[in-house]
Specification:
This protein is an alpha/beta fold and 137 residues long. It contains five helices and seven strands; from the N terminus they run E-H-E-H-E-E-E-H-E-E-H-H. It has one domain: 3-Layer(aba) Sandwich (Rossmann fold), CATH 3.40.50.2300. The strands form two sheets. Strands 2-1-3-6-7 form a five-stranded parallel beta sheet. A two-stranded antiparallel ribbon has the order 4-5.
């Protein structure tokens, strides 16, 4: 049952019991939970880590949707796995390929989702809006 040995994971979940259970499952699977958050600001802070392989993000946290945090993580080469009670919908185009599991998920879905998230290539950093085209005009 130690399928995630050596994997460094952060978890953003606003339901305290689910957060606790998920962290326990990850530890049993061999992963090291290096950080956790219950709101958007905390999830956004994951991007500042230099010791993180994958972040598991509940889509709807206190403060709104996690899309900006997910984009920041992906642009730094950190894998993202979305976990939500609702089916995937309204994903921004740049996040369409990010693995997504629906609650309640089982151990196998979680492990496979983390493996898929860790394998994704880095998302290019966002380009500045506007100025470049005006300079070429």
């Amino acid at each position: 049952m130690r399928h995630l040995v050596g994997m460094r994971v952060a978890v953003a979940e606003d339901e305290p019991l689910l957060l606790h259970i998920l962290c326990d499952i990850l530890a049993l699977a061999g992963a090291e939970v290096v950080d956790w958050a219950t709101d958007i600001d905390g999830a956004q802070g994951f991007a500042d880590s230099d010791s993180l392989d994958v972040a598991i993000l509940d889509v709807d946290l206190k403060g709104g949707r996690v899309w900006p945090a997910a984009s920041a993580l992906r642009s730094k080469g950190i894998g993202v796995l979305f976990a939500s009670g609702a089916p995937a919908q309204d994903l921004p185009r740049e996040l369409a390929g990010v693995p997504y599991i629906c609650k309640p998920y089982d151990y196998r879905e979680l492990v496979e989702g983390i493996a898929a998230a860790a394998a994704l290539p880095r998302l290019p950093a966002p380009r500045p809006q506007g100025g470049l085209q005006a300079a070429n005009a």
